[in-house]
């Protein structure tokens, strides 16, 4: 697991928000069991929740550092984490019943910064997936 120090170090106004996009259909999270009467039922072990983290007013060096850190995580096949306190202040919903920092997976191809028209600042939207284990 890799801690995203580049995002954790950003000023709070640069994190526009984290939007909950629902949950992802995942057949691995639902296990079918059969009761003694022969009826099948699902036991759900986890959900995969989708989020979009929106960053704004980033300089070129900040964007470069963030993308390099994501690339390093992907090369090492790591998942990433962002401090929960930063995310809760921007709209993160904590579905977990256990304490701890959220752990996200991502696709590197989804990272594409865009430059704000007429400025030297960039914005970046990052789709993230959090697997939440159910107890």
Architecture blueprint of SSEs:
Elements: E1 2-3, H1 5-8, E2 15-24, E3 30-34, E4 40-44, E5 46-58, H2 60-75, E6 80-81, H3 84-88, E7 103-105, E8 114-115, E9 122-133
Parallel strand pairs: 1-6
Antiparallel strand pairs: 2-5, 3-4, 5-9, 6-7, 7-9, 8-9
Structure description:
- With 135 residues, the chain is of the alpha+beta class.
- Helix content is 19%, strand content 40%.
- Strands 1, 2, 5, 6, 7, 8 and 9 form a seven-stranded mixed β-sheet that branches. The chain has a two-stranded antiparallel sheet with strand order 3-4.
- The radius of gyration is 18 Å and the shape is elongated.
Radius of gyration: 18 Å
Strand content: 35-45%
How does the helix and strand content classify structurally? Answer: alpha+beta
| Global shape | elongated
* Major β-sheet annotation: 7 strands, mixed
Unreliable spans: none
Instruction: Please provide the ordered H/E string of secondary-structure elements.
Output: EHEEEEHEHEEE
- The amount of helix comes to 10-25%
**SS elements, strand count:** 9
The quaternary structure here is single chain
Termini separation comes to 22 Å
- Compute the average pLDDT: 85
Count the DSSP helices: 3
């Amino acid at each position: 697991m890799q801690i995203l120090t580049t995002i954790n170090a950003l000023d709070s106004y640069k994190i526009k928000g984290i939007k909950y996009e629902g949950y992802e259909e995942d057949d691995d999270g639902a296990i079918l069991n059969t009761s003694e009467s022969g009826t099948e039922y699902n036991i759900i072990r986890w959900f995969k929740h989708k989020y979009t983290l929106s960053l704004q007013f980033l300089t070129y060096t900040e964007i470069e550092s963030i993308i390099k850190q994501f690339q390093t995580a992907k090369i090492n096949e790591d998942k990433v984490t962002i401090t929960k306190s930063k995310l809760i202040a921007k709209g993160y919903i904590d579905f977990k019943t256990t304490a701890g920092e959220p752990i996200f997976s991502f696709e590197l191809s989804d990272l594409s910064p865009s430059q704000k028209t007429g400025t030297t600042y960039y914005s970046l939207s990052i789709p993230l997936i959090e697997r939440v284990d159910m107890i």
